[in-house]
Amino acid sequence: MISQANASPDLRSGHFANYLGPEYKQGYFEDATIADFHLLMTADDAIKILSENGWRGGWLENNTPEPETIETFGHAFRRGADTTISLYRYKTSDTKETKIYAIEYTQKFDRIQDIDILAQKIMDKYGDPTNITREGMYTVFLYSQDNKMMNMKDCASAYKQNQPKCFLYTTWLKSPKLTAKISPKSIELTLENEGEALLHQEIINARKGSFIEHQRKEESENLEMGF
Prior knowledge:
Blueprint: H1 26-31, H2 43-52, E1 56-57, H3 58-61, E2 76-79, E3 83-91, E4 98-108, H4 115-126, E5 131-135, E6 138-143, H5 167-173, E7 177-182, E8 186-192, H6 194-222
Antiparallel strand pairs: 1-2, 2-3, 3-4, 4-8, 5-6, 6-7, 7-8
């Protein structure tokens, strides 16, 4: 952790604007797990866990081809009637391995649960959240590297994110995060590192562009003109 929370979260108050929790380092997100899955694990390692723990469906059983760069659509694996997990894959530019850059987990409950107890279970595993917000019926815990970025409302709109003043915010958006959405009816967890996947995508696409340009020049040099 980089800094400590200024106060423990009071979930009953419903007022979270002034709550600033701990900021977490890169290693925290690399070590965090959801149902035994973690960021940057290989797809082969993920397949072993899927098979050993009774997950069905997803890109494994649907024979979905591996992405050329980044997978942006979630293919849900199911375990039982109420639990799903989506594992988003990306191709590494150096080793050509397929790895996981985002994990989305949902567990629905057939009976109404106590949200304070659910929230405590989340904190028991992941620690105090960096920020807390409300989204309708959900209490949302965000774990990130900076507890002040959530308050940069001027940079929230997409068209402003290209402005120089929003550079740090845009970088933060792509940085590792863990989000927990808690309601009496369900828990939704998302663990992601979009920036890592985008970096590899940029390198792969740049190589493709260079290769295509080289081919184009070679074809032009060997072209027989009819005049």
